[in-house]
Amino acid sequence: MSDKNKKIPYDEDNYTHNINRNNERKLDRRGFMKTLVGAAGVFAVSSLPWGTLAAKELMGLGDKEYKHKKITDVKSIAIGDAVDFAFPGEHDSAILIRLSENHYVAYQNACTHLRCPVFWDKKEEEMICPCHHGKFDVKTGTPIAGPPRRPLPEIQVKVDKGAVYAVRVKRYEA
Amino acid sequence: MKRSYVGVALLCAILMLNIIFTQYMVHQYFFENYKNTIIAAAVNVILFPVAIYIYKRDKKQDKGMKNHE
Questions:
Q1: Which of A12, A44, A53, A173 has its CA 20 to 30 A from that of A154?
Q2: How many domains does chain B have?
Q3: What pTM value is reported for the model?
Q4: CA distance B8 to A34
Q5: Residue A115 is assigned to a structural domain of this protein
Q6: In terms of CA atoms, which chain A residue is nearest residue B29?
Q7: In the A/B pair of chains, how many CB contacts fall below 8 A?
Q8: B34 lies in a domain?
Q9: ipTM (interface predicted TM)
Q10: Strands (DSSP E) along chain A, which ranges?
Q11: Cβ–Cβ of B37/A34 closer than 8 Å?
């Protein structure tokens, strides 16, 4: 009587009655442990990029120093004047502004809104992007008006033997 | 058949540690303590083989118990 259901209906043509799906979706203890091990694996793999990035930072690759590049002679730039240059690549246009006798500031002058070139407005003492009238503070590079929301990347400069050199691009800090 | 839930508890503990170290790692990265970040990442990676070991050990014990039945 109990064997009634176990009987194979047609011995020679048994293609539709041979699938046993009882408890197919049941998560037993072993299956649960398997899931936990898998989760540990996911955690392990996902922590690899963080370790890599941290190692990169420790090795100082993030704060790379470029070859020093001469921008201009001190004699040829008057106080309050600006000069355009390119740093670190030949297409990374930048601007150097002499604010006082010994105070120079330099920024990569692609506007942080839509990358129009930013100009130095001597009269207003502001840096102005002509495209959408974005304005930047000349001392820090932070945006003070218009659409841009992020500061201009600052370039560290060094004065050596009557010439101004670009040293490195400061890291962007969020 | 009597089952041991020690393995399950251990794996749960490992998962908890994973969560803790992952959050610690991310936070330390943004606090720019890169050494701590690397340590936390290494712990996270090492916990994975430990979890596999616990699972395998449990499987072996299970088999042994079945043979006794």
A1: A53
A2: 1
A3: 0.58
A4: 10
A5: yes
A6: A54
A7: 86
A8: yes
A9: 0.89
A10: 69-73, 82-86, 93-98, 104-108, 119-121, 126-129, 134-136, 143-145, 154-160, 163-169
A11: no
